[in-house]
């Protein structure tokens, strides 16, 4: 009697065990899918954080050199030399009697201004190395009815350089500059001759030296 009752019970236990064994891979698969979904969610958050970080870096303006370099696609053939009536020339100066300076009244961004100085006058945006030279450049810059003109100063890797490759051995910053400036290119204020950092894609008159 007991043996007859025990046999169905053993068969039921065996069948249940086989059923659980068959379901084990499915349960393990479901757990792996859950873990994979969690990993994907985590990587999405990391990507979002990375995107926000990159956006934050770009929004600081510290690397607006990119805005300058993006304009290098403009070829020399695409640049028109300024008309004579749109420029003012000045010859000589302290320390360089043979130097020529030319104020171009037509506003350009920094990169185009430098390209025009090279193509049209075989020179560069002006570099300034003394107070007397700065005063002379200011007298030329005052010929335009604009608050600022481009000179050849540019910041790369947290240091300032002149586009003509000459030594950075003199500065005449406005109060609070260059620390409070926004941008990597240097302009000269036509009112007092002081220098300011502004964004390179701004359009300003400019002064070439050659």
Automatic annotation (TrEMBL):
Q: Name one GO molecular function term.
A: carbohydrate binding
Range of residues in the leader sequence: 1-17
Per the record's keyword annotation, is Transport included, yes or no?
no
Locate the compositionally biased regions of type Acidic residues.
Answer: 39-52, 61-79
Q: Which InterPro entries is this protein grouped with? A: C-type_lectin-like, C-type_lectin-like/link_sf, C-type_lectin/snaclec_domain, C-type_lectin_CS, CTDL_fold, EMBP_CTLD, Eosinophil_major_basic
What domain of life does the native source organism fall in? Eukaryota
Q: Which UniProt keywords apply?
A: Disulfide bond, Lectin, Signal
Does Signal show up as a keyword for this record?
yes
| Gene Ontology BP terms | basophil activation; histamine biosynthetic process; immune response; leukotriene biosynthetic process; negative regulation of translation; neutrophil activation; positive regulation of interleukin-8 production; superoxide anion generation
Question: Domain named C-type lectin: which ranges?
Answer: 101-209
Map out region (Disordered) in residue numbers: 39-87
Spell out the protein name for this chain. Proteoglycan 3, pro eosinophil major basic protein 2
Organism from which the protein derives: Oryctolagus cuniculus
> Which gene specifies this protein's sequence?
PRG3
């Amino acid at each position: 009697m007991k043996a007859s009752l025990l046999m169905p019970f053993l068969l039921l236990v065996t069948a249940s065990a086989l059923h659980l064994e068959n379901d084990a891979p499915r349960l393990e698969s479901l757990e792996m899918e859950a873990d994979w979904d969690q990993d994907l969610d985590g990587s999405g958050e990391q990507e979002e954080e990375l995107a926000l970080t990159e956006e934050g870096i770009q929004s600081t303006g510290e690397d607006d050199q990119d805005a300058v370099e993006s304009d290098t696609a403009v070829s020399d053939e695409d640049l028109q030399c300024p008309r004579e009536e749109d420029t003012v020339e000045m010859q000589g100066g302290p320390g360089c009697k043979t130097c020529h300076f030319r104020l171009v009244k037509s506003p350009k961004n920094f990169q185009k201004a430098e390209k025009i100085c090279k193509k049209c006058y075989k020179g560069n945006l002006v570099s300034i190395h003394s107070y007397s030279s700065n005063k002379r450049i200011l007298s030329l810059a005052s010929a335009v009815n604009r608050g600022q003109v481009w000179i050849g100063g540019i910041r790369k890797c947290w240091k300032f350089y002149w586009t003509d490759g000459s030594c950075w051995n003199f500065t005449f910053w406005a109060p609070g500059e260059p620390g409070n400036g926004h941008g990597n290119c240097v302009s000269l204020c036509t009112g007092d001759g002081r220098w300011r950092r502004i964004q390179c894609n701004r359009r300003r008159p400019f002064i070439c030296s050659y």
